[in-house]
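PROTEIN DESIGN WORKSHEET
SECTION A - STRUCTURE
LENGTH: 363
TOKENS:
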């Protein structure tokens, strides 16, 4: 019997395939890789290549009947103008490079939003992935070879000195990570406030014994730890703070959850660095017979696709994807246009989304 992959696994397969295809070059001479050309359209329509070019550019010089014939021929052949080639022929490429990590589910959501924002601003995107075997510097180098005019880096781990070097070469926008340098533009979520909202929600439900599974050295992890501690202090629960090492992946969350089960007394609620790690926590808790949310409430962070799956239904702190991505593209475009910028860093407020993994404590 053939088993279909789970929805979460399918989403990761798509993201990994996107990473593999980002800079894949089709083999020359392959029939499957050959795109219809202007010459093919001209032959089908019975006109010159120059006339086809006029029609495709919507320039004057062709009759209505000819335009209709050429467009019909292009439709039949599946011809689409090569926007990348058009950009390369122009004085500007209008190409923005984006570096994202395949291990971070939320980055997939951000990439989708960046495409929407770039289309609206008449820019193209070039993607370069960070994988376990491909670091950020290699991903950036690949984009620099593509004539990118600006770079958008999603949650980079690179040191500030390296980011400053890039910003000295071209407009650079860092998303989802604070960077203290006057030449680096930053668009990020208020991570401290986000964890504060998660803790406020749990305390309002009656939880006084909580834990936080952190993101290690991941961008935003330090701010989320501060948000957790600060919120407990506001509620007079600072002495009850418990922070466990975690990370970005389901495995990181699962490892932290096993350590959590060894604590006494067992917390009644846990906040987790991101949604992907939270799914690992949920798996271990449920396998150990811990009812969620009856015995323990769980809160994630990001509101990624994983959190919204019906069988997970994770309470989580949502980052405003539309704001993060539209402001990132707008900032890159403003730098390229030479517009005056008064705020180097823009901080976007998050909001809590309550689903099925939080409830009042029962013990």
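SECTION B - SEQUENCE
RESIDUE ASSIGNMENT:
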């Amino acid at each position: 019997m053939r088993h279909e992959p789970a929805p979460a696994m399918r989403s990761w397969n798509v993201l990994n395939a996107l990473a593999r295809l980002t800079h894949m070059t089709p083999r020359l001479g392959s029939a499957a890789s050959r795109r219809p050309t202007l010459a093919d359209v001209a032959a089908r329509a019975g006109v010159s290549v120059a006339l086809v070019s006029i029609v495709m550019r919507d320039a004057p010089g062709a009759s209505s009947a000819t335009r209709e014939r050429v467009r019909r021929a292009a439709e039949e052949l599946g011809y689409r103008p090569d926007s990348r080639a058009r950009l390369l022929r122009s004085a500007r490429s209008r190409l923005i490079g984006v570096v994202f990590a395949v291990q971070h589910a939320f980055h997939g959501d951000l990439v989708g939003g960046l495409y929407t924002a770039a289309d609206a601003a008449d820019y193209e995107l070039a993607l370069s992935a960070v994988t376990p075997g491909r670091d950020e510097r290699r991903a950036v180098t690949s984009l620099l070879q593509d004539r990118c005019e600006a770079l958008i880096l999603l949650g980079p781990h690179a040191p500030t000195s390296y980011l400053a070097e890039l910003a000295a070469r071209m407009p650079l926008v860092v998303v989802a990570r604070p960077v203290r340098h006057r030449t680096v533009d930053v668009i990020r979520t208020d991570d401290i406030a986000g964890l504060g909202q998660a803790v406020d929600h749990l305390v309002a439900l009656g939880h006084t014994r909580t834990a936080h599974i952190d993101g290690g050295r991941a961008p935003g992890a330090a701010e989320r730890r501060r948000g957790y501690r600060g919120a407990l202090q506001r509620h007079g629960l600072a002495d009850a703070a418990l922070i466990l090492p975690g990370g970005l992946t389901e495995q990181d969350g699962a490892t932290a959850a096993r350590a959590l089960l060894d604590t006494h007394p067992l917390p009644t609620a846990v906040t987790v660095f991101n949604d992907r790690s939270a799914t690992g926590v949920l798996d271990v808790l449920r396998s150990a017979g811990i009812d969620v949310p009856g015995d323990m409430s769980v809160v994630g962070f990001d509101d990624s696709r994983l959190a919204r799956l019906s069988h997970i239904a994770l309470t989580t702190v949502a980052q405003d994807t539309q704001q993060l991505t539209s402001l990132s593209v707008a900032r890159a475009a403003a730098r390229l246009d030479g517009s005056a910028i008064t705020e180097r860093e823009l901080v976007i407020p998050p909001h809590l989304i309550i689903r099925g993994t939080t409830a009042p404590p029962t013990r």
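SECTION C - NOTES
The first helix runs from residue 7 to 21.
The chain has a mean pLDDT of 88.
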